[in-house]
């Protein structure tokens, strides 16, 4: 498998740092805590950790509002502790990916403080400032993804600035070459410190229409959806010039060897795949989020796999994401039994998988009492189900300890105790054991890493496909229903099943039984 890059062979694990491991009792996770848990991740069998933002930040959006791109927030530690984290990860052969947040900064970032200080400040044009509309009011109809107008009035200089998210997150002007150079320096700052790549926040939003035209109404809008769904994002996302920026990020990373560029992009597949660029000059992996909202049925998933595979440009490497800090947890979306099926799916599809912390023990969405909501997306548009706290609750290490071992202090979000790493560790039938076995199987078998995906099919509730690499062939069958089902298969031997006792058993050519919610991998 040596001809593949490490990020093609590997599995990525996302850490939400506030919630992974606290080391100093302040109730919020930190770098020293993460470092202490790296051996758990190496044992689990993942290859890279992506860490959500840890930069200095007023935390209006929990770190996605960056006040200094080249430092560490004291809440998380220091640059020295970051070095210890990277060094320890590398000792354990784990790669480290940072979250790069170039679309917007915090309104407390010195760049914005300068920019808003006067109309003729040299940094004025680093952000998007516009005069009021001719009759007064915001310059156009653009809406914020956190609710309301995306324009904030600045009385001091008599103009509005644009913010795709919170007003505390002004958007940078990526048409300004100075901004591009400054952000390039940020990438280099971290690359010099040994970072192995970046997940780029909202990559598809970086460039906005140069003429600031109004977005058209969205005819499919349903009442109760987030505000910005009222409009098609025609002039605020996926603008053609964005690809030039992706190319320049790619070029910078290429100067440092095999570093990975991943884009957070929520777009239909046809638009998504353009972010791969031409002949490898784009992102290595535009995140493929289709599983996050997929209707959980065999026919839909089969169609999705086939469509994605055929939409990929020739040079493009696929990837699949099952969970992240912005979406409901998989175990809550599909239930505990199907979360196991989902694990087998994620780790046997063609392409790099990204796991979300805690999914490997089947964590479910936490329950947040009404007075304890933290997420600004929920606080500013209450009641529309946008709240992201439930999927951000602390990692459950040991249910017998206060806060499940996450903190000795008062946890920033409630910690659930329905399960834990400690409870699942020695249990061969646990979700954690399933993930460990899957990760080992994947690492040791070229068909699962670099094999083609063939014969993707659905029959009733059962999804089947094969992975082929030279003379190694695997057959995967997933029962996405609760009832027993029949599956047509080639003759083979079960290597792994979610049903205890089935490993090592033969599959006959033709009809075989699958238990309800069973997923299996067989060599054929
Ligand atoms: C996407 C991030 O994943 C999300 O958590 C954040 O709120 C927005 N970008 C704004 O940075």
TrEMBL record:
InterPro entries with a match to the protein in the record: GH, GH13_cat_dom, Glyco_hydro_b, O16G_dom_2
Keyword Hydrolase: yes
Pfam families: Alpha-amylase
Organism superkingdom: Bacteria
Keywords on record: Hydrolase
GO molecular function terms attached to this record: hydrolase activity
Glycosyl hydrolase family 13 catalytic domain boundaries: 14-392
Homology family: Belongs to the glycosyl hydrolase 13 family.
PANTHER family from the UniProt entry: ALPHA-AMYLASE FAMILY MEMBER, NEUTRAL AND BASIC AMINO ACID TRANSPORT PROTEIN RBAT
Name by which UniProt lists this protein: Alpha-amylase family glycosyl hydrolase
Originating organism: Paraburkholderia phenoliruptrix
